[in-house]
């Protein structure tokens, strides 16, 4: 039997949570979403929103699978409730 002697630390798989640009969601709504669900300051949230607006996609945070999934669901539910087409997705790092 081969036993592992080298100590190994397990790292959890991490996921980026991304916002996607669209032509209809108001900038102010996106800033509010980033502040509310990703705990960013107004300044950071504005920077992220403008990055998405100009580049098509941008990162709001990096989380473990379950947390990332929760963020995506919260953002999508909130956007739908306000009838905005904002899209939020997660991507394995
Ligand atoms: N492009 C949108 C506008 O001009 C703003 C926007 C930014 C929408 C980021 C979505 O994830 C987004 N109103």
UniProtKB/TrEMBL annotation:
Q: What Gene3D superfamilies does UniProt report for this protein, alphabetically?
A: 3.30.1390.10
Name the UniProt key words of this record, in alphabetical order.
Answer: Hydrolase, Protease
**Ranges of residues in domain Adaptor protein ClpS core:** 10-88
- What processes does the entry annotate via GO biological process terms? protein catabolic process; proteolysis
Pfam families, A to Z: ClpS
Q: Signal peptide location in the record? A: none
Q: Which family does it belong to?
A: Belongs to the ClpS family.
Quaternary assembly: Binds to the N-terminal domain of the chaperone ClpA.
Summary of the function given for this chain in its UniProt record: Involved in the modulation of the specificity of the ClpAP-mediated ATP-dependent protein degradation.
> Entry's HAMAP family?
ClpS
Query: What is the official name of this protein in its record?
Result: ATP-dependent Clp protease adapter protein ClpS
């Amino acid at each position: 039997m081969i036993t592992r002697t080298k100590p190994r630390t397990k790292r959890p798989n991490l996921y980026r949570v991304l916002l996607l640009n669209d032509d209809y969601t108001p900038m102010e709504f996106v800033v509010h979403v980033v502040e509310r669900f990703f705990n960013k300051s107004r300044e950071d949230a504005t920077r992220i929103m403008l990055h998405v607006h100009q580049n098509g996609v941008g990162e709001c945070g990096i989380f473990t699978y379950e947390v990332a999934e929760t963020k995506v669901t919260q953002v999508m539910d909130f956007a739908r409730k306000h009838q905005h087409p904002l899209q939020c997705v997660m991507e394995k790092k």
